[in-house]
Please model this.
Amino acid sequence: MMSISVLSLCGSVEGTIVVNALPTISADLGGSDLYIWIPNAFFLASITALPLYAQLSNIFGRRIVLLAAVALFTIGCILCGASSSITMLIIARAVQGLGSGGVDTLCETVILDLVPLRERGKYISFVSIGTTLGYTAGPFLGGLIIVKLGWPWIFYLSAILSGISFIMFFCFLKVKHQRGQGLKAKMMRIDFGGNLIFIGAVVAVLLALTWAGPVYKWNDTRIITPLVLGLLGLCAYIAFEWTPRLAPEPSFPRAIVSNRTSAAVLAMTLVNSITMYGTFYFLPVYFQGVLAKSPLGSGIALAPVSALVVPFAVASGILLSKIGKYRPIHALGWACTLLTVGLCSTLNHKSSAAAWAIFEVIGAIGLGALSISLLPAIQAPLPESLTAASAGSYSFARGFGAVWGVTIPSAVFNNAVKGKANFITDPTLMSRLANGQAYQLATKAFLDSIPSADSALRNQIISIFEHAIHQVFYVLVAFAGLGLLLVLVEKEIVLRTENNTEFGLEESTNAD
Model:
């Protein structure tokens, strides 16, 4: 259990820790026009591998596939820390992301195999301590490590932890898996066609989202074409998977979304990820671009949510196991999330520390409640045979939402700044902020670069950043409202108290 928590921490923290490190890494390695690929290569690689990992774990067993994912993640971490150019770092982040995708979905799947559905919330809450702590504490850890050790140690520390986890899994993880089939028969079961369509579609969508804004305008054909083709590709993937003649053993079975509860909660997962990432990417923008805090100071300012999200998550997991009902927990989580983003839309340069600290506490309640209760609700109407596939679908919705949760708010922020840039009296700064660089420039270092004698110009820019952040949170209010409405769609289904699965712990008499 400890190894799984540590691995979940490593995987999730690598998705957020570079938030504060991006300016430093970009300045050190150069290639500022490629900076966006440092986080996005990780997300792209981790998301595209999810359905394949879920299916491989059913065919070859959880243990060997999880060990391969951990090894890949560890190698990626080492390569990231050793990178001497922006291109090498981007490639290494992709390797790291490939491993993280497997770590993300298989850590949860192993736990799901071991305990009945009703008890899973309690166990997942302890495992998700690593995940939720990584999402919220990543920016703080990134700022601290940069100051104390230098940015390569962001990756080296993860490599050390994941390496220890690999050894512990290798020695102690003994779980059942299907035996008797040869390698050729197992390879024939892999959904190669569906996974190839899925990978191509997701890559096209994420390329469009990565290029939109920093590289090309949203209405450019080089954005519209891959975006449309990618979305059509996802539709083709679904059609392929749901045609038994083409995919006799699909990586995305139709049964996962054939009931309204699983479908609604998968949509909730996507919306929650968008809202969560948008909030935790743009609170640091507020702290640095409006309050002029350093990256480390920004991380410290996130301490309330970082400290409280874990106990709230554990409490939600225990409550779910005790009452066996997930709809009240979803309603509470979305209500707190909606209140949080609504309150954050009022933040300005005069807001007190007490105000934004209280907002973060409310947000921690919402995040803790939703992070634990969504997956059990997805699986409530489904048979145990779909445990890995449903966990993979959940991880995909969460990861895909993370990309949209960065892209949509960034586009809103840049466009809002562009709309007000003509009020800036300095033509050079006006040009930089109006040309899609506002998100990168919303830092204390940028504000400090403005001559101290020109306080009026500094105040103009802070005011524009403040306005743009308000627009971001208005959009997040709409997403949080949608999440709350989806609670009305799902049904309350009794959570199973027995666990009938072909996987699980291997009996000692059958141990290898």
Summary: Residues 255-493 form a domain with the Growth Hormone; Chain: A; fold (CATH 1.20.1250.20). The first helix runs from residue 2 to 16.
